[in-house]
């Protein structure tokens, strides 16, 4: 048996029949055809052939693969009474071939191993069969947005012969941060000088992470509002802005709310306008608390790939110290009573009681302190006008004491004690 016209997926087998022996020597088995066995490192094929054949086109082979081909005569008999079939094989005729190289298939997979500031590392998983001597990977890329006109290519060598224990190759790509790319990879075989066989391309979307925003500034506008501004360092699709209250835990700053499930105080997505790539982006954050530290975090994103975080801290302006609201003013001959309310919400710091000042003739004044919302002042002069001022006493965490603005009222003591009522009686019939 010999093989001829061997190509990348087929070979022509031819053999001579020699003396046709219809029966196996020393046996009642009769010649019924041939058994063709094809062995390679990848597969084993067995095919029965008709007895009248002297040639056979063996197809469906793998390119650039060595095969051991064996052809044996097949003898058989059928025992009708016992309902069984007996078979025996004759001596083997063998031939060894290696199929021709062919275009390699596409790589199996493209994996992104690293992606930071346009430095992308991809891993190319080799095809199962190269169909020839592995040579190179051809890589080219282009931005999905054709108006950007961002494209390039490079070639990466692979080792030959291809090591069985390594089925991948890594490649470093330098791309523009913040852009969506289509990356195409094809495998190449080297057949000889000026003879390269290139396979089909495998396409993969690669999204580069944008650069970190720059020039982040956060400033307090009012006790409950702050403005945040920044500039883009390069292309992006949107900016993610979050504002959280700053907490101190065991002497360290923590930029996360106390509960992991707590939402950020403020979250916004600001879309990037490519026409104003280098311009400043800004927004106003409201509903903040006065006199608090807030951490502003801004990151640039393209789809789900985002930059590192840029942080800034803003301290909101203190709220104006409120006045007490005087609700009760009353007097008698030598005393007066004054009462007030004060907002209970946590507007700035804990207040520490109230200072009540009362003056007659605008120069003779006295002061008293109380932690209640009511004060009774006695031992006063009758028929005298008193000007009353009530202020909140603020004690800050650093020990500093501050007195708030005054709520004012005026009261006059009685000029004399009211006389007793005169009771007159009139006798009936008088």
Automatic annotation (TrEMBL):
Fibronectin type-III domain span: 1-102, 106-212, 322-418
The keyword Repeat is assigned to this record: yes
InterPro entries membership: ECM_Regulatory_Proteins (IPR050991), FN3_dom (IPR003961), FN3_sf (IPR036116), Ig-like_fold (IPR013783)
Stored Gene3D superfamilies: Immunoglobulins (2.60.40.10)
Keyword flag DNA damage: no
Segments for region (Disordered): 408-430
Name of the protein in question: Putative receptor mediating netrin-dependent axon guidance
């Amino acid at each position: 048996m010999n093989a001829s016209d061997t190509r990348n997926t087929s070979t022509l087998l031819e053999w001579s029949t020699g003396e046709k022996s219809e029966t196996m020597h020393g046996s009642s088995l009769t010649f019924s055809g041939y058994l063709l066995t094809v062995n390679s490192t990848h597969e084993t094929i067995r095919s029965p052939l008709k007895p009248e054949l002297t040639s056979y086109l063996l197809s469906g082979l793998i390119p650039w693969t060595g095969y051991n081909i064996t052809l044996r005569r097949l003898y058989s008999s059928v025992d009708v009474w016992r309902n069984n079939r007996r078979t025996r094989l004759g001596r083997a005729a063998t031939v060894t071939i290696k199929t021709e190289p062919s275009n390699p298939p596409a790589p199996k997979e493209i994996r992104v191993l690293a992606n930071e500031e346009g430095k992308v590392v991809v891993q190319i998983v080799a095809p199962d069969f190269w169909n020839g001597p592995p040579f190179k990977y051809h890589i080219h890329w282009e931005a999905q947005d054709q108006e950007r006109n961002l494209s390039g290519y490079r070639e990466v060598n692979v080792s030959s012969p291809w090591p069985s224990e390594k089925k991948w190759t890594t490649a470093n790509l330098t791309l523009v941060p913040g852009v969506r790319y289509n990356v195409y990879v094809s495998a190449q075989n080297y057949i000889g000088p000026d003879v390269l066989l290139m396979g089909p391309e495998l396409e993969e979307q690669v999204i580069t992470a944008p650069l970190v925003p720059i020039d982040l500034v956060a400033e307090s506008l009012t006790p409950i509002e702050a403005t945040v501004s920044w500039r883009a360092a390069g292309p992006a699709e949107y900016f993610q802005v979050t504002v959280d209250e700053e907490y101190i835990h065991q002497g360290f700053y923590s930029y996360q709310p106390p509960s992991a499930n707590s939402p950020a105080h403020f979250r916004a997505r600001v879309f990037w306008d490519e026409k104003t790539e280098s311009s400043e982006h800004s927004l106003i954050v409201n509903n903040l608390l006065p006199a608090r530290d807030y951490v502003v975090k801004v990151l640039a994103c393209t789809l789900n790939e985002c930059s590192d975080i840029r942080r800034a801290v803003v301290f909101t302006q203190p709220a104006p110290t409120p006045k007490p609201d005087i609700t009760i003013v009353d007097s008698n001959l030598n005393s007066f009573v004054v009462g007030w309310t004060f907002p209970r919400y946590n507007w700035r710091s804990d207040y520490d009681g109230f200072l009540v000042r009362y003056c007659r003739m605008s120069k003779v004044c006295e002061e008293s302190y109380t932690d209640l919302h009511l004060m009774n002042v006695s031992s006063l002069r009758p028929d005298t006008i008193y000007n009353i001022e009530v202020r909140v006493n603020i004690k800050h965490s650093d020990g500093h004491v501050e007195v708030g603005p005054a709520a004012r009222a005026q009261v006059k003591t009685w000029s004399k004690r009211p006389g007793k009522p005169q009771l007159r009686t009139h006798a009936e019939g008088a």
